Amino acid sequence: MMVFYRGEDVFSPVFVDALLAFYAVGIAIGLLVAGPLSDRYGRRVVMLPAPIVALIGSILIAMGETSEPIIFTGRMLSGLALGMAMTAGGSWIKELSSPAFDPTAKPNSGAKRSAMAMTGGFAVGALIAGLLAEWGPIPGQLPYMIHVVLSIVTIVGLMTVPETRQSAHLKVKGSFLSDLASPSAKHPRFLLVVLPLAPWVFGCTGVAYAIMPALIQNAYGNPIAITAGITALALAFGFGIQQFPDLYWRNHSAFGQQVGLVIVIIGMLVAAWTAKTVSLVGALIVAVVLGLGYGITLLTGLTEVQRLASPDELGGLTAIYYVFTYVGFFFPMILTRLSEWFSYPVMLFAGVVVAVLNLALITVFSRKFIPAES
């Protein structure tokens, strides 16, 4: 929808870019507040308001097509709802994927289901919104009206899902602020294996479906549809690879993380070449490769987090992890600003160098500080 707002010329380019930042701020608040709250009060009670907040956000965005304050508020609320769902909802899914609720679940089923739910939602939402914004009636409102209806359905559906964590607020000592300080966030494996990988989760998607479409859109028509198609393609491959974690996840090493970063490096190299040649085919290849990188880095990172965290800090540690993944959300904005001094091929190749350094660090600590062996 950012491409749609740029094309409408109602808001300044700076404000349209800032909408992404407002969204990210809302996500960060939702992550850091909802995660620890769900550890203290339970998953269900914290997750149930999320679709209500999302519904209000969509209504405001639909109303604010020409109003900066209204669309700003709507974007913030949409981000807040997503942050709540990612932490409280993700922790809920993880616990629903335990033997107590699902005897057939595997140890990594929670991470797999959380990752696939988020990826699938991103893919379907982006594709439908993009197609409606390009060719549908009332493009500034219809995508959000559909989301309002889906949010109402979600509210009804969530009412039937059982609580997995009983409220611990009468037993847990300390303030809410103390809940933010997750002990496992200091674990060496979290610091040396999980965090170096985290920014590449959404760094992959940012390059694939924000930077690439922006670089090629002047050479092709229908920029909104192209962006939606590239987004859906990247996330479809991410969703697909998340269905087969046994291909790359290993309990006693960081093999999956290494595979993910190798794919990221290949994707960034192709992205640098595409930025120079301005090729639609190249952009599609980047979407496929970085979509795979996104899928693997997200799932392996979540799996590490879920085996590091105790039940009392699962939501909190998940929140911290996601905050670091959203560092990659700012990659397109940073590169846009730096493009006044550096070319995109140069900047994307610099990203390759950073990814190689991350891979080297993770490789050194691949088999160290594993919880079962600590």
TrEMBL record:
Compartment(s) of residence: Cell membrane
Key words, A-Z: Cell membrane, Membrane, Transmembrane, Transmembrane helix, Transport
Entry-linked Gene3D superfamilies: MFS general substrate transporter like domains (1.20.1250.20)
Topology of this chain in the membrane: Multi-pass membrane protein
GO cellular component terms given for this protein: plasma membrane
Molecular function terms, GO-annotated: transmembrane transporter activity
Pfam families: MFS_1
Residues of the Major facilitator superfamily (MFS) profile domain: 1-374
InterPro entries: MFS, MFS_dom, MFS_trans_sf, MFS_Transporters, Sugar_transporter_CS
Membrane spanning residue stretches: 12-33, 45-64, 70-93, 114-132, 144-161, 190-212, 224-242, 254-274, 280-302, 314-335, 341-365
SUPFAM superfamilies, per database record: MFS general substrate transporter (SSF103473)
Protein name stated in the entry: MFS transporter
